[in-house]
């Protein structure tokens, strides 16, 4: 069980345990008043007493996947500099033939339950995210939570440009580290996708190899019926072949856990990319603002000195329809000077914002890197352990079969 | 059997299976047949050829005039027969050293046949000759002709589809060599076949083609007589014991066929698995190139999967080369055995028909006409030879399959051991902590 620190009304820090302990099929009416079936998940929060380590159930409520999504979208908007933990996949992907792609399939639901629990644990263990009020309410306030989140107005704050993944901003001076990081996240996504696809095919093939061996069981049994001395050995060897064939089910089920660990980081890559995009966007806005300011300054200067170097509509119309009066010119200069003053302020704050973003984001990215390296190493180790276990089982079964054959 | 009216046909007739000795049994129950015209079960064992000798239907004289290859004249060979089961073997044959010969007309492979023997039939203690597949084919045909009452071991398949299998690849040649070696060893182990003159010529002649051209007609008396059995005699009842053998062979061949298909399917699935593994491993390498701290662990996993792929390839190669051919050999074996059974039926049918014909004639006959007696003789020899060979075949079959299946289990164990070693060796690499930055 995982321990996290939490704030309650920003007053105190408590140690808590979170678990998504159950999943339940429900039917209800959706926004369009149509009947739908969905799965609800039970979230239980326990507070842990320091001294005796005992945990007490403090909160227990049901949430569905879409509420998790809402929570995450909120976090993405309010913490753009944080690599926000991802949710488990919405639809089953990278399935090999024995896995179901059906969202209602109990195996899928079970793996999703684990993934949702993992998500909450990740958020709760994040030094910044864990203090968020909306997150706290997610765990504690069943009714009205959706309304509360929407009241924050976070959807308005969301920058739609960030959602347009393919939109490119021509940024002149991005922080090189973010460019590199974005490349890395793209490549990571690509390589893990590829890995998951091939792994699914490998699992499929391995399944086939094991299952065909089951046929030996039957034919050895049939053959043993016509033999005298060889009969017993054949029969018992056949039994071991059956054991071999059926062992693959558990083996591959365990491997799905490995695949889920990889998937988490596949989706994490997306979150990483989002932070880089945010930086790009901020930098773009900054550069646009600076450009705009520079152009206004230029205009101002030209008006003051009477030289026209920059093209302006006003200048054109002036040429066509006659010069403006000195009063008009003065007014314009004054307006521009106001705008310039404002612009300089904005640029200053944007700059500050930008630098702060870079600093904070980079801190979280470093934290994320450590976490990623640790987690993936653990995942690889557990994968190796799974393979070792599979090999040992194989040796055992074939040794048993060999023994039976020797008695033929 | 002397004098008197012809006895009841020495077939086992309509009897309950329970009373019938199992074709695989040694000397279990007594065969409930008519008198001493058929060898008793005790004589089914190799040792009893001598006794059988003495119960020839046409009198007690051992068929001294019979050609040496007839099983009914192996008095002095009895000793050697016993010894063959023990340690004092006197004939050793090996097939090795395949070589390719390129001639203007064709390209072919020859194998070296080395023979060591203390038998009187061999002038020299040691021989070394070179033979090609068609020579083996000639030998087998000659054996079938001259020893029709015996089970002749099969040869590996003659024809290979050109373009699909490379006749000159190392794997193919080695697989064939092993099968040819097995073929000769089975003949060597056979108490009758090993003394066959064609076999001797095959092992010793410098120029086999010259011998082939002479068309040696060393047909045995039995052989010739069996050859003369024209088809067309209909057998009413196959004796239960031979019927049982026939049924056994049918089911046996069926089961082997199924096992062959399963084995082929497994190899196919394993190869497809291998294809995927060969794509899977390198992806970890690609990933490794993106990473810093994870680079080594990922590269390690990639290499590990590569090792497992190699091990898998070795497994599928072994199964293809060592397992499948032996299965197929036994299927061929049981096919040829079934045709020997049919020939036996023919001999029995001829005898029964002739016997009936005699019985129908109203004339009183002092004794059974000679040619009917000859038929009976042939049939009884055939039955005895076949039963003895069946038992020998059953024993060898058991040993061969025991070895084959243990070998299959072994190969799989070795595969998993190689994989285990690979994965265990990277655990320390994965657990390695980076030096504090």
TrEMBL record, chain A:
GO molecular function, one term: phosphatidylinositol-3-phosphate binding
Annotated compartments: Early endosome membrane
Keywords in alphabetical order: Acetylation, Endosome, Lipid-binding, Membrane, Protein transport, Transport
Coarse class of the protein's main subcellular location: membrane
Quaternary organization: Heterodimer; heterodimerizes with SNX7 or SNX30. Interacts with WWC1/KIBRA. Identified in a complex with WWC1/KIBRA and dynein components DYNLL1 and DYNC1I2. Interacts with BIN1.
Family: Belongs to the sorting nexin family.
Protein's name in the database: Sorting nexin-4
Lineage: Eukaryota, Metazoa, Chordata, Craniata, Vertebrata
Gene it is expressed from: SNX4
TrEMBL record, chain B:
Membrane association type: Peripheral membrane protein
Domain of life according to the entry: Eukaryota
Assigned GO CC terms: early endosome membrane; phagophore assembly site
GO biological process, alphabetically ordered: autophagy of mitochondrion; endocytic recycling; piecemeal microautophagy of the nucleus; positive regulation of autophagosome assembly; protein transport; reticulophagy
Subcellular location: Early endosome membrane
PROSITE patterns for the chain: PX (PS50195)
SUPFAM superfamilies: BAR/IMD domain-like, PX domain
Biased composition (Low complexity): 59-73
Keywords annotated in UniProt: Protein transport, Transport
Record carries keyword Transport: yes
InterPro entries recorded: AH/BAR_dom_sf (IPR027267), PX_dom (IPR001683), PX_dom_sf (IPR036871), SNX30_BAR (IPR028649)
Region described as Disordered: 1-73
Pfam families, alphabetized: PX (PF00787)
GO molecular function (one): phosphatidylinositol binding
PX domain ranges (all copies): 89-210
PANTHER family assigned to the protein according to its UniProt record, in alphabetical order: SORTING NEXIN-30, SORTING NEXIN-4
Family note: Belongs to the sorting nexin family.
Self-association state and partner proteins as the record states: Heterodimer; heterodimerizes with SNX4.
Protein name according to UniProt: Sorting nexin-30
Lineage, broadest ranks: Eukaryota, Metazoa, Chordata, Craniata, Vertebrata
């Amino acid at each position: 069980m995982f321990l996290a620190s939490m704030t309650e009304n920003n007053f105190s820090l408590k140690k808590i345990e979170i678990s998504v302990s159950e999943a339940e099929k429900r039917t209800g009416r959706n926004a369009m008043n149509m009947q739908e079936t969905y799965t609800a998940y039970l979230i239980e929060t326990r507070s842990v007493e320091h001294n005796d380590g005992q945990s007490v159930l403090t909160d227990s409520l049901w949430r569905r996947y879409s509420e998790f999504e809402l929570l995450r979208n909120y976090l993405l908007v309010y913490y753009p500099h944080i690599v926000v933990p991802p949710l488990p996949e919405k639809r089953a992907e990278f399935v090999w033939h024995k896995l179901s792609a059906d969202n209602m399939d109990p195996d899928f639901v079970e793996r999703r339950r684990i993934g949702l629990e993992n998500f909450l644990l990740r958020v709760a263990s994040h030094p910044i995210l864990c203090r968020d009020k909306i997150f706290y309410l997610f765990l504690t306030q069943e009714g009205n939570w959706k309304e509360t989140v929407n009241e924050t107005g976070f959807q308005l704050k969301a920058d739609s440009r960030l959602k347009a993944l393919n939109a490119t901003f021509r940024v002149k001076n991005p922080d090189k580290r973010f460019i590199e990081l974005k490349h890395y996240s793209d490549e990571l996504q690509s390589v893990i996708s590829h890995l998951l696809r091939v792994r699914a095919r490998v699992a499929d093939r391995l399944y086939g190899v094991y299952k065909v061996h089951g046929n030996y069981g039957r034919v050895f049994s049939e053959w043993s019926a016509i033999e005298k001395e060889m009969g017993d050995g054949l029969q018992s060897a056949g039994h071991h072949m059956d054991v071999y064939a059926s062992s693959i089910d558990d083996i591959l089920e365990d491997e799905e856990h490995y695949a889920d660990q990889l998937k988490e980081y596949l989706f994490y890559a997306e979150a990483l990319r989002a932070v880089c995009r945010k930086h790009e966007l901020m930098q773009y806005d900054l550069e646009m603002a600076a450009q705009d300011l520079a152009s206004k300054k230029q205009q101002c200067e030209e008006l003051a000195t009477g030289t026209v170097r920059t093209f302006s509509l006003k200048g054109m119309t002036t040429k066509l329809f006659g010069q403006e009066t000195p009063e008009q010119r003065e007014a314009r200069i004054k307006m521009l000077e106001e705008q310039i003053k404002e612009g300089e302020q904005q640029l200053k704050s944007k700059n500050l914002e930008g630098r702060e973003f870079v600093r904070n984001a980079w801190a979280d990215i470093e934290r994320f890197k450590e976490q990623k390296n640790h987690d993936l190493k653990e995942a690889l180790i557990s994968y190796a352990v799974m393979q070792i276990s599979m090999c040992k089982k194989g040796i055992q079964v074939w040794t048993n079969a060999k023994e039976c054959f020797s008695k033929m | 059997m002397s004098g008197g009216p012809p006895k009841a046909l020495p077939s086992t007739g309509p009897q309950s299976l329970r009373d019938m000795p199992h074709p695989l049994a040694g000397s279990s129950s007594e065969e409930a047949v008519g008198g001493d015209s058929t060898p008793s079960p005790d004589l089914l064992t190799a040792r009893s050829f001598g006794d059988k000798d003495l119960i020839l239907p046409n009198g007690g004289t051992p068929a001294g005039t019979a050609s040496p290859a007839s099983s009914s004249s192996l008095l002095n060979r009895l000793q050697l027969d016993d010894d063959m089961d023990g340690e004092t073997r006197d004939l050793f044959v090996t097939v090795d050293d395949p070589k390719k010969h390129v001639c203007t007309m064709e390209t072919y492979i020859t194998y070296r046949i080395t023979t060591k023997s203390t038998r009187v039939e061999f002038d020299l203690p040691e021989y070394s000759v070179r033979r090609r597949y068609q020579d083996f084919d000639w030998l087998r045909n000659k054996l079938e002709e001259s020893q029709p009452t015996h089970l002749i071991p099969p040869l590996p398949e003659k024809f290979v589809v050109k373009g699909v299998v490379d006749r000159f690849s190392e794997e193919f040649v080695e697989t064939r060599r092993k099968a040819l070696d097995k073929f000769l060893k089975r003949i060597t182990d056979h108490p009758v076949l090993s003394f066959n003159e064609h076999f001797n010529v095959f092992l010793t002649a410098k120029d086999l083609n010259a011998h082939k051209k002479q068309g040696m007609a060393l047909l045995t008396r039995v052989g010739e007589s069996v050859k003369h059995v024209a088809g067309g005699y209909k057998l009413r009842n196959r004796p239960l014991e031979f019927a049982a053998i026939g049924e056994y062979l049918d089911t046996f061949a069926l089961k082997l066929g199924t096992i062959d298909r399963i084995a082929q399917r497994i190899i196919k699935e394993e190869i497809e698995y291998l294809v995927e593994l060969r794509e899977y491993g390198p992806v970890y390498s690609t990933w490794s190139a993106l990473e810093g701290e994870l680079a080594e662990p990922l590269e390690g996993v990639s290499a590990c999967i590569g090792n497992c792929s190699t091990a898998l390839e070795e497994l599928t190669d072994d199964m293809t080369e060592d397992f499948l051919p032996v299965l197929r050999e036994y299927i061929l074996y049981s096919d040829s055995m079934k045709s020997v059974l049919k020939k036996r039926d023919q001999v029995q049918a001829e005898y029964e028909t002739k016997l009936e014909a005699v019985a129908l004639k109203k004339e009183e006959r002092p004794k059974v006409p000679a040619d009917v007696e000859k038929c009976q003789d042939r049939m009884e020899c055939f039955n005895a030879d076949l039963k003895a060979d069946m038992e020998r075949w059953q024993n060898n079959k058991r040993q061969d399959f025991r070895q084959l299946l243990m070998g299959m289990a072994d190969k799989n164990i070795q595969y998993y051991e190689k994989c285990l070693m690979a994965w265990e060796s990277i655990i320390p690499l994965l657990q390695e902590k980076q030096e504090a930055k």
